[in-house]
Every structure is written in C-alpha cells, then in structure tokens.
Design a protein that fits this description.
Length: 446
C-alpha cells in the first residue's frame, strides 16, 4: 500500500508510463454494456436520438468536473476574447477508469447527432446540408472511437478484454460510417473484424458464466451480420473492381495477418484471465465448478428434415389410431324431417322483391312531388316580381302625366312681372336639352 501510494501522482501532475506499469490493472471496462445501458435508459428505446445526445453532453460535463480535468481558458487582457485551449486525454493522464468514458461519450454524442440527422432527413427542406451534417458527425464519432482505442491499447493498466472491447467498438463505428459513405469494401473489412471480436468475447463470457454479457454480445453480432451481407453484396456488384472482387472472394474479407495476430494474442490473454477469475470464485456447496464444454456438432439440414418428417408421421399415426366418435341423432330429428313443412323460399323472395318495388316507386313519387312543388313556388315568385315591375311602371307613367298637365296649365297663366324671367329660363332649358318632366319640375317649384 505504501509503494502504491508513493506512485500515485499529485493533483494536476501526469504519471509516466513506467510508473503506471507498476500499478495494478484496472477492472475490465465493458464498453458495450455501458453504451447499451445508457442508450436504453435515455431515449433510444423510443428512438429519441436528440434526448440521448443531450444526455451525452451533460455526462461529459459531469465526467470532466468530477475528474477535475476540464478544458483550459487562457487569461488575456480586458477587451480581448478569451482563448480556449482543448485538453485531450493522454496516456500519462489516464490514472482512472473514468477517463476512458470521456472519449466514449464524445463518440456517442456525435453518433446520436448523426442518427438524429438521418431521422429528420426526409422532413428537412435542406437535404444536402442535412446529409453533410450527418456524414461529418459520423466521421467525428469514428475519430473519437479510434482515440479511445489508441488510449486503451497504449495504457499498460488495461487488460486484454478491455482492449478487445475498444477495438470492436471502433471497428463497428468505422463500418457504419463507411456504409454511409458507400465505401463497401472498407466497411465489410471493419464489420468482419468487429463481428469476430464480439464472437470471441461472447465465448469468454461463457467461461465466466455471465449470461447477460453473453446475450449482449450475441445481439451485437446479430445487428452486424445484415450490414455485413449488404457490404459484401455491394462490394461484389461494384463496376470496374475485378481484382478487388477476386481478392474478396479468395480471402473472404479476412483482416490482415498482423492485425489478426495481435487480436489472437489479446484473445488468448483474455481467455487466461477469464479462466483465472472462474477458478478464483468459491464454488457453492454441492455445486460443481464451471468448465468449458466443447461445442456440439451442428446437425446437417438433411438430418433435421428427416427428424421433422418422422415426428410429423408419428403424430399422424397417433391421430389415425384414435377411434372416431359415433354421432347420435336427436329425438326430434325424424319428426322435423317428415312431419314439419318448411316454407317455400321462392314465395319469400317474391314478397321481398314486391316490397322493394313499392318502396322504390314511393321514393320516386316523393321526389317528383317535391320537384313539382319547387317549380310552382318558383313560378309564383316570378309572377309576383313581374306584377311589381308593371305597378312601378304604371306609377311612373301617372307621375309623368301629372307633371306634364301641371306644366301646361302654368304656361297659359303666367304671373305679373315674371314674363321675362320665364322666357329666359325656357330658352336656357331648350339650349341645355332638358326633358319635359324636368322642365315641369322647375316651373312647378317656382
């Protein structure tokens, strides 16, 4: 304890790699389990990517604050904008398991933003801008995932299982990004590597007897396999790539020999650690220790078909062997068959057709009566309007006749001293061309 306490760095001082090698290993960081639990509990169960993105942002803020590893701001004189200095996680500063989650949730934040852009791509009016944002976010997610993988690979305090988890996570994100960019061959290689690593991790979970991890890795493999088939199909159909197609068919999308050797070494170390953990666990009373059982050979499809045929034939024979139950007639069967006369169906059909004809005729008569009533009402309104017009015309004729008579009477008996004025008004009226009714009105008013 004293030796390890001396090796612990002070606050704000990084630790050398040589000092980290002398410290004990971290516990296994199950990256996939952390990601899936946070996704299921913060919006992705209902495909709410925006909520998950906000959670990742707040999670990063809390992580940096708790680890006291926030970004730096350079102090400058008043009136100048503050200069921001990013503080990345390095191998020397990797003194706690929580430092790995900074890069992890940075990648998850970028991935959630990309998935949100893909979900709103059809609704957005600017589709090209939204697609560019999607691809940029995926590239940044791959960048942070590769930084996480490099950090864990170079750290001497991380075990082999954690390194495999980081490599598989980075490879799966790279594959999904290459699918979006339509780099089919590169995507197929990355997804093939991720699938093989998750398969190995699932086998190691059986050694530890952890069913939750085993189901998690199996579900991840089932998610990757359809994407892998899509990449293989599109890579084979790509025009002008005959050499690449032959290479894919010959190698079957295997990863390079160097990467395969490193992955095999990590798998061997992880298996050793898993077996040691399983042996260290105290066995319960009356229970046997967990041992790795060899895989059972899968049955051939022909043998499966033969077994299914035998089972179906046995069930058929069992049903045939059962005696058929005898049906007994009810007591009133013969009475109903010979003594009761059933009504003729033809008469009923004739009655129904007659009822339908009468109903149809009544409906037609009703519609005709309504149309006749509407026509009569319309004619009545038109006649009333015509009578009003004639009365109005007669009234106007009477008024005009009365005005003419009044004008004629006043012309015969003019007033004294007003003869000259009347003659002048008559001349002005004749020159202006006014009608007789207007003239009468003028003379009558005066």
């Amino acid at each position: 304890m004293a030796a390890t306490a001396e090796l612990q760095p002070q606050e704000g001082e990084p630790m050398d790699v040589g000092q980290q090698e002398q410290l004990p290993l971290f516990s296994t960081i199950n990256i996939l389990q952390i990601v899936k639990s946070s996704q299921d509990s913060h919006g992705l169960r209902y495909s709410d990517y925006n909520r998950y993105r906000k959670y990742c942002t707040s999670k990063l803020h809390r992580l940096r604050k708790s680890l006291k590893y926030g970004h730096q701001y350079k102090c400058v004189r008043k009136g100048v904008s503050v200069k921001f200095k990013k503080r990345p996680v390095t191998v020397e500063a990797f003194a706690d398991e929580m430092f790995a989650q900074i890069h992890l949730f940075e990648a998850e934040r970028r991935w959630a933003r990309a998935m949100y852009d893909r979900a709103t791509l059809d609704v957005s009016p600017e589709k090209l801008r939204k697609r560019l944002s999607l691809r940029t976010s995926l590239k940044r997610a791959v960048l942070y995932a590769t930084q996480l993988e490099e950090l864990i690979r170079e750290s001497p305090r991380c075990d082999a299982a954690t390194k495999l988890e980081a490599k598989a996570y980075a490879a799966s994100l790279l594959g999904f990004c290459c699918i979006e960019l339509k780099f089919w061959q590169r995507a197929a290689e990355a997804l093939k590597a991720a699938n093989s690593i998750y398969d190995q991790l699932g086998q190691m979970a059986t050694i530890i007897n952890d069913e939750a991890l085993q189901n998690l890795y199996r579900a991840r493999c089932n998610e990757i396999k359809p994407q892998l088939r899509l990449c293989e199909h599109n890579a084979a159909d790509a025009p002008g790539n005959v050499d690449e197609i032959n290479q894919l068919l010959s190698e079957k999308l295997q990863i390079s020999h160097k990467d395969k050797q490193t992955i095999d070494d990590l798998v061997a170390k992880a298996r050793e650690n898993a077996t040691q953990k399983a042996q260290q666990k105290p066995a319960a009373a009356g229970q046997k220790t967990v041992k790795m059982q060899p895989k059972k050979e899968e049955k051939q499809p022909q043998a499966r078909k033969a077994n299914t045929k035998q089972k179906t034939e046995k069930t058929r024979q069992a049903h045939r062997a059962q005696p058929t139950p005898k049906l007994s007639k009810p007591l009133f069967y013969d009475l109903a068959e010979f003594c009761i006369l059933m009504p003729d169906l033809g008469d009923r059909i004739d009655e129904v057709t007659k009822e339908m004809k009468t109903v149809r005729a009544a409906r037609e008569a009703e519609t005709a009566a309504k149309a006749e009533a509407e026509r009569a009402e319309r004619e009545k309104k038109e006649a009333a309007k015509e009578a009003q017009k004639q009365a109005k015309a007669a009234k106007q004729a009477r008024v005009s006749a009365a005005l003419q008579q009044q004008q004629g009477g006043k012309k015969g008996t003019p007033k004294k001293g007003g003869g000259k004025k009347k003659e002048e008004e008559e001349k002005s009226a004749e020159e202006s061309g006014l009608s007789g009714m207007v003239k009468g009105w003028i003379w009558g008013s005066k």
